[in-house]
């Protein structure tokens, strides 16, 4: 509604129109003086504006959007898709960008089990097609800074995940499952998780990240770092997040990607 009234300011009479509207549970009244430029300079109006702000009529700025939460270590229980389906959905990362370095630790004995895992028959990294495209964009964005990506693990056959669980039983380390360091149903089985670090493209050296890959302790938690290590972890995290990946907060190296209706695979890596 709109009305008109006369008000006294500093001894003078000034014609003022008012406009009222409701927003939610608030009645918002706006004063529209005809000589508003001169009126706004008066102490009375400044006091009125301050009173309106304190009363809640001035709405606060909206809170910033929440960052994506760290995904659960285990996926839903789903059937394993046939290898023929895996062949249509998984793509090799280096076929999309040969500048990305691949060092699949589970195809060698250089991993926490001290032996190659079942299903790892070659040093080749695969991901779902959508995740591969996003990873190529990360590599492209890092290149002008003289940096690149080095992959420790990508798609992982279901049989390899089961071998990890068997290893925890043999060495009596059920805590690694309980604490979320080893998954019994891994996002790697979906072709939607990747373990990686950054390297200096000129030297090939890995940037300092504070712990080796597959360190099962709080020291590997992404936020548990200071100085240049913290800066390197956050740079990797930011680069990956810009392209839709989400970091697992207990492992600075682990990132996942989402697609609708994901499938589990057990196709060997050849």
Give a written overview of the molecule.
27% of the residues lie in helices and 21% in strands. It is an alpha+beta fold and 270 residues long. It folds into 2 domains: 2-55, no CATH class; 83-256, Muramoyl-pentapeptide Carboxypeptidase, domain 2 (2-Layer Sandwich). The strands form 3 sheets. A 5-stranded mixed sheet has the order 5-7-8-10-9, covered by helices on one side. It has a 3-stranded antiparallel sheet with strand order 1-2-3, with no helix packed on it. The chain has a two-stranded antiparallel ribbon with strand order 4-6. β9 and β10 form a beta hairpin. The longest helix is centred in the last third of the chain and has 15 residues, at 227-241. The protein is globular and about 40 Å long. The protein starts with a strand and ends in a 14-residue tail after the last strand. Residues 1-18, 20-42 and 57-61 have low confidence and may be disordered.
The total beta strand count reads: 10
Top-tier CATH class of the largest domain = Alpha Beta
Q: Low-confidence parts, pLDDT < 50 over ≥5 residues?
A: 1-18, 20-42, 57-61
From the N-terminal CA to the C-terminal CA, the straight-line distance is: 74 Å
Indicate the CATH topology of the largest domain. Answer: Muramoyl-pentapeptide Carboxypeptidase, domain 2
Strand content: 15-25%
What class, by secondary structure content?
alpha+beta
The CATH architecture of the largest domain comes to: 2-Layer Sandwich
Mean pLDDT: 84
Which oligomerization state do the chains in this entry correspond to? single chain
**Number of domains in the coordinates?**
2
Q: Helix count?
A: 8
Shape: globular
Radius of gyration: 29 Å
Order of helix and strand elements from N to C terminus? EEEHHHEHEEHEHHEHEE
Proportion of residues in helical segments:
25-40%
Strand order of the largest sheet: 5-7-8-10-9
Q: Please give the largest β-sheet.
A: 5 strands, mixed
């Amino acid at each position: 509604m709109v009305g008109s009234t006369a008000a006294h300011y500093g001894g003078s009479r000034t014609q003022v129109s008012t406009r009222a509207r409701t927003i939610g549970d608030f009645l918002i009244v706006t004063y529209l003086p005809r000589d508003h430029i001169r009126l706004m300079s008066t102490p009375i109006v400044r006091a009125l504006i301050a009173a309106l702000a304190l009363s809640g009529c001035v709405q606060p700025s909206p809170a910033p959007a929440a960052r994506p939460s760290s995904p659960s270590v285990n996926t839903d229980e789903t059937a394993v898709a046939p290898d023929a389906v895996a062949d249509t959905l998984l793509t090799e990362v280096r076929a999309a960008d040969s500048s990305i370095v691949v060092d699949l630790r589970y195809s060698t004995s250089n991993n926490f089990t001290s032996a190659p895992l079942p299903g790892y028959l070659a040093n080749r990294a695969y991901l779902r097609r959508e995740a591969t495209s996003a990873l190529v964009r990360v590599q492209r964005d890092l290149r002008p800074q003289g940096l690149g990506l080095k992959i420790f693990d990508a798609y992982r056959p279901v049989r390899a995940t089961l071998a990890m669980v068997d290893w925890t039983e043999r060495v009596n380390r059920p805590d690694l499952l309980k604490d979320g360091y080893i998954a019994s149903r891994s996002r790697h089985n979906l072709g939607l998780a990747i373990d990686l670090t950054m390297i200096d493209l000129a030297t090939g050296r890995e940037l300092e990240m504070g712990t080796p890959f597959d360190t099962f302790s709080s020291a590997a938690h992404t936020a548990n770092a200071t100085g240049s290590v913290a800066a390197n972890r956050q740079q990797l995290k930011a680069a990956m997040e810009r392209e839709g990946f989400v970091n697992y907060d207990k492992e600075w190296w682990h990132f996942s990607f989402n697609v609708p209706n994901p499938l589990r695979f057990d196709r060997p890596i050849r």
